[in-house]
Specification:
S-adenosyl-L-methionine; two-stranded antiparallel ribbon; Small_mtfrase_dom; Rossmann fold; methyltransferase
């Protein structure tokens, strides 16, 4: 007898009882090619035998703690579908706000670096959104400390027909000069592990998550190196952890006194993003 979506949803929650309901819903909706509204409105839809087999296969992986995006092989970011795989950070919705902020300052002909690119989500969204606003002739660069994310990012750049130069680099070492640098760097403190989703800890690369004992290792290196990698009047945009605003204000005031700095909260009201502009 055919299974309805509602029945499959219940079965999935029983098979993967540790998974959050929203993870199950996301996985089922994506695998069945349904929008969130269709998913909610069509709970009586009957699934084919092949669909039931696929969903059960997916849910078994979910029950083992594999993130839904890794099961599907892709994630969504600012409306763009991007390939992801183990060893590559899953794009975060909060980072969409960082991209939108940077877009306010982006100009045609700019040289842009996505520092710690991961899946390449920031570069893809920034480039495509810029094009839709008539911002053109961007010179795009993306770097990462590991080979795996660079390979995935290159696939995503190819999918979106973007000409991006990729480089393997630790922070800014060995890179050129840019008009704009944007980054979602590692900033989590090891002591915050107990606050994190277990799926994240089990699946996602530690080097993309943890920023040393106090979460600020990346920012210290960046602050010492950035003048050598920005053109005069250049800007940078970065994410940071919700508890790090005061420490970062002090760090950048000491290391970059000739930079105009601004800090912003995200839509949830948490300190999340910073902007620096070289007054040269």
């Amino acid at each position: 007898m055919p299974k309805t979506l509602k029945e499959m949803r219940i079965e999935a929650s029983e098979l993967a009882e540790e998974a959050r309901p929203e993870e199950i819903d996301f996985l089922l909706a994506e695998r069945l090619g349904m929008t969130p509204s269709e998913y909610q409105l069509k709970q009586d839809r009957e699934l084919t035998d092949d669909e039931v087999k696929q969903v059960r296969k997916d849910v078994k992986k979910l029950a083992k703690g594999v993130s839904p995006q890794y099961i599907l092989g892709y994630a969504w970011f600012l409306g763009y579908r991007l390939k992801v795989a183990r060893g590559v950070l899953i794009p975060r919705f909060e980072t969409e706000e960082l991209v939108e902020w940077a877009l306010e300052y982006l100009k045609s002909g700019s040289t842009v670096l996505d520092l710690g690119t991961g899946s390449g989500n920031i570069t893809v969204a920034l480039a495509k959104e810029a094009a839709s606003k008539g911002i053109s002739d961007l010179h795009l660069y993306a770097s990462d400390v590991k080979d795996a994310p660079l390979r995935i990012s290159e696939e995503n750049f190819l999918d979106y027909q973007l000409n991006v130069t990729t480089r393997k680099a630790n922070v800014l070492l060995g890179l050129g000069k840019f008009d704009l640098i944007i980054s979602n760097p590692p900033y989590i403190k090891p002591g915050e592990k107990n606050l994190m989703d277990q799926n994240v800890l089990a699946n996602e690369p530690e080097e993309a998550l943890f920023g040393g004992e106090d979460g600020l290792a990346f920012y210290r290196k960046f602050a010492k190196e950035v003048r050598d990698h920005l053109n005069p009047g250049g800007r940078f945009f970065m994410e940071f952890g919700f508890s790090e605003e005061d420490e970062l204000k002090a760090l950048f005031a000491e290391e970059l006194p000739d930079f105009k700095m601004e800090f912003r909260r995200d839509m949830a009201g948490k300190p999340r993003m910073l902007f620096g502009e070289w007054q040269k």
